[in-house]
Amino acid sequence: MAERALEWAASRRGAGPVLVYSTAEATEVESIQRALGAASAGALIESTLAAIACGLVAQGVRQLVVAGGETAGACVQALDITQMQIGPQIDPGVPWCYATRGDGVALHVALKSGNFGADDFFWRAFEVLS
């Protein structure tokens, strides 16, 4: 799944921000959670989105917005972010951060929980860095 998302994203880079997300109807989520267990189903989504974040960085992407607290934690760990400095505010409670990975690669990351940010948060995030 991550490979398909990365191919799709690579074909659209340069035309503006690319949004990768997970979604399903509530009945489908419930069915998957019954089959795998809620924790395992959540961990599968988080690890897939973390793999996509790592793949995007490997492709040269240096600005990531990660939404969802558990997903943000999974991405920070997978990206081996060792240092972060608070940058400009996007919305109250959500800044861009200047992050450094263990390999020295520098990134801009915004880590947004589900409870923060206005309806136009994702668009505004990239306007703040422009």
- The tally of beta strands, per DSSP, is 4
Order of strands across the biggest sheet?
1-4-3-2
Please count the helical segments.
5
Beta-strand residue percentage:
15-25%
**What is the H/E string?**
HHHEHEEEH
Mean pLDDT comes to 94
Low-pLDDT sequence parts: none
**Name of the CATH first level:** Alpha Beta
CATH names the topology as Molybdenum Cofactor Biosythetic Enzyme, Chain A
Q: Report, as a whole number of angstroms, the end-to-end distance.
A: 31 Å
Query: Which second-level CATH architecture applies?
Result: 3-Layer(aba) Sandwich
Entry keywords:
130 residues, alpha+beta, globular
How would you describe what is shown here?
This protein starts with a helix and ends with a helix. Helix content is 48%, strand content 24%. By secondary structure, it is of the alpha+beta class. It has a four-stranded mixed sheet. The protein has helices at residues 2-12, 26-36, 38-58, 69-78, 121-129; strands at 63-67, 81-91, 94-101, 106-112. The chain has a single domain, classed as 3-Layer(aba) Sandwich (Molybdenum Cofactor Biosythetic Enzyme, Chain A), CATH 3.40.980.20.
